[in-house]
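Help wanted!
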Amino acid sequence: MKIVIVGGVAGGASAAARARRLSEDAEIVLVERGPDVSFANCGLPYYIGGKIADRNKLLVVAPEQLKARFEIDVRVRSSVESIDRTVKTVRIHNLASGEEYEETYDKLILAPGAASLRPPIPGIDSPGIFTLRNLQDVDRIKAVVDQGVKQAVVVGAGFIGLELVENLVRLGVETTVVELQDQVLPPLDKEMTTPIAKALAEKGVTLLLSEAADGFEQTPDGLVVRLKSGQELPAQLVALGIGVRPENKLAVDAGLKVGPRGGIQVNEFLQTEDSDIYAVGDAIEVQDFVLNVPTQIPLAGPANRQGRIAADNICGLSSTYRGTQGTAILGLFELVAAMTGASEKILKRSEVPHRMVYVHPTDHAGYYPGAEQMTLKVLFDPESGKVLGAQGVGGAGVDKRIDVLAVAVQSGMTVFDLEEIELAYSPQFGSAKDPVNMVGFVAAGLLRDDHPQMDVSSLMELPADERPFLLDVRTAEEFADGHIPDAVNIYVDKLRSRLDELPRDREIAAYCQVGQRGYLATRILNQSGFTAVNVGGGYVTYQLYHPPGDESNR
Amino acid sequence: MKIVIVGGVAGGASAAARARRLSEDAEIVLVERGPDVSFANCGLPYYIGGKIADRNKLLVVAPEQLKARFEIDVRVRSSVESIDRTVKTVRIHNLASGEEYEETYDKLILAPGAASLRPPIPGIDSPGIFTLRNLQDVDRIKAVVDQGVKQAVVVGAGFIGLELVENLVRLGVETTVVELQDQVLPPLDKEMTTPIAKALAEKGVTLLLSEAADGFEQTPDGLVVRLKSGQELPAQLVALGIGVRPENKLAVDAGLKVGPRGGIQVNEFLQTEDSDIYAVGDAIEVQDFVLNVPTQIPLAGPANRQGRIAADNICGLSSTYRGTQGTAILGLFELVAAMTGASEKILKRSEVPHRMVYVHPTDHAGYYPGAEQMTLKVLFDPESGKVLGAQGVGGAGVDKRIDVLAVAVQSGMTVFDLEEIELAYSPQFGSAKDPVNMVGFVAAGLLRDDHPQMDVSSLMELPADERPFLLDVRTAEEFADGHIPDAVNIYVDKLRSRLDELPRDREIAAYCQVGQRGYLATRILNQSGFTAVNVGGGYVTYQLYHPPGDESNR
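Answered by r_m:
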């Protein structure tokens, strides 16, 4: 059997190695347009910032190694130009020699990846404007950086854009981020990104939201980025991180179906409609594991697994891809933001019924030094309690809780199961009631109705005259430090003796700092004949929606 | 309703707070023998070592706070002496005043905890010999430490014993550990504790395994600990960490059933055979979640959850306890060891069929600085692949993987599901193929028989003349650095061209450093007409069983 693989990075390289393991006899040809195979895509920003000092570290496997160990016929600097499905050949263009030739295949795996978007803005092709997908990009950026960059503009505040920002700040570059949406990290819900925006500001990064680049002009000092708002930003380096589009030309030209966003369509075996052609990685349309609809989620982990699965199926081992959850993570300075499964905005857009809770626990026992507060937001089905998605932002331990919740999503766990999760506890690693257990307690209480809750967003969307009576049950000191407008303060420990100060003809929304005291207050009130709800996640959640100093929210 | 709770730490305090949340009307009496409620049990060793500097940090909630916030009638320094089930009263002894009195109950929750074992060894009651269960213990130890301790002996190398060792080393105390078993951390499988023993030695701790204290004698300088072997150890401080026994006297005297190891027996609602009496925490017998047999696992997380569940049931909310997995973790210097579910030795002893795999990946992408190697061992059902247990040892990221695997155990996942787990990847947090995925790949390959494996232990148990031909497929340099006796070295990349050097009439056991190259070698060999297996986890696993310099293994 002869297997030709187009693309030699995550999905393609995985497919090649796996195919060889399964079949010593197969002829395996790996065709890669660039000079490198299997390079560390996700490390590129850190090489720019110097965190990864040695460029060779980014070359996970050299073409010669794939040849020596796996007997893969690796052809770099070679571009597959077309597929002839009727005779099962591909046309390969050797970019070094210029030669073109046909290669036959029995099975073809398309792993061409995705290309960075370069919008047709005037001046987009000026020198100093870069995307960041491969080592060549990074070499070009590093060359500019090494000449000395005072100001940089990063267009797009997604994962890669912000990783690049961190590294530019590390290099002492004055950095401005321009993002079309009204938040950073668009896959996350907006309020969960408030700490990220704050951290960027604290590091001196200028963040321009709901803003876009409109044009680029060369100047004696470099470039000027013209924004939609009319503002002009001088820069010696511009990096575009506004997303990617699937490299689907080969598939489209061959008459293979692509989805509405351009991803090559495959079945659960990762087979295109041509049973001899498979496709994997960033170029394909995948099934959203939670929503069970087609989507596009370019991630390294799934690409690797898909490569493996395609090879399995080609080599006679039936193997299916279960879909992508979209588990993703960003490290930014001392902060971590991560997510898995569906976000609130996606659930809303998809009209999927859901409820949510917020908790703000510390990553480990508060009595042990170094505990850091995090925020977890978990979305779940209002009937079954099935976990639909989770997001976390904070410092240490966010990655662990999102990974735990990723497994919960995969296995179809409910919030009632989260109550029962038994994680490793010792004071430096967690708490006897882990943050994930806390999520379970709060969410299960909501569903069982013994802990009625109102979301901050629902509360603030109500017209002022329809809002419940707002009861702040924190201490007088905490109240004085900041509170939700119009709230009345009665400390939870005094509540039982001051019930006569509260209205019996009006719903009461109690809140505290993170939700625990508000929960107790709600219990006291509802058992004393009042109608009360707890504002989920308390004042800390409120502040995520209404960051201090954010005038737009007043 | 009047609820009386015996014991005010993890389980008891949780039950009290939960009961109040569920019922404003209940009368809740919390009786605690000691002066403190809800103190941070698990922080005690760190207070001794000074990592937790402020003693008040260990007092999670003061009795007055329970009173003010939860209207709990807290009675500290009060001991429940007996239960009269016929009239539903308890007899309480006020240890401060000496007064004794009866208290009625509608529902009684027993949360008395467990007491440290103090074996009847001559001299056991000498000054300077301590156990470590509460703040009074810790005050006594700290008093001795503050006077200056040169040498200490810790009897028992379990979790608490080793945490104490770390803290004594932090204080500069020459420490000897005496452990009856032939390994440290007896809940783990022996080979997984090899790195722990090594770390202790590196920190200058003397580790005496298969050894026991036989007697204690007072000397002018402190104590002498006499060991079974005859050896004598001078010490100014001796700490006993040899385990605990359930505080079951109250229950036994009241005619309630206890299990063979003394744990109070309860049903899934945590109710004793007297439907008005519940029991929770370290004092009870629990169901082993994996093996589904009664056992005793004293852990803070489960105790907290049990308190909550007992209160639920008393307050009319039906709630069941699913059993305990025994997820536990130790931080020791720079090392972490953790486990969840069943160990190999427990599975063997219980005659439960199982297979296992080892992987030795890094906690995050190798190309990003600071990656640390860990060892994961996962046990699973040989038919279904269901995950039965996991152990990890290494540095960063061990806690995360064991927590992920704890959820896998809880949800009944198989090793095939582990292949598909989608964790958060970015180079500082993980790998595109996470350690947990690697476990899945290796274990699934074993079950699907496309990756036949032989355990190191099985290999070494074979008589020399029945052993397979041992093939080391690492580089000549690696081979020269150390290898399994009698192995022949052919580098994996040269294997295809040197097949004629290998026997066709004998099984071949290939191995490399961690298992990956050995896997490929096995694939090559089996597809070329040989009968080959991969030695699971390679030379690193071999070294866990045969630590360099350990003469007993030669």
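OP: Thanks! One thing I noticed: Chain B is about 25% helix and 25% strand.
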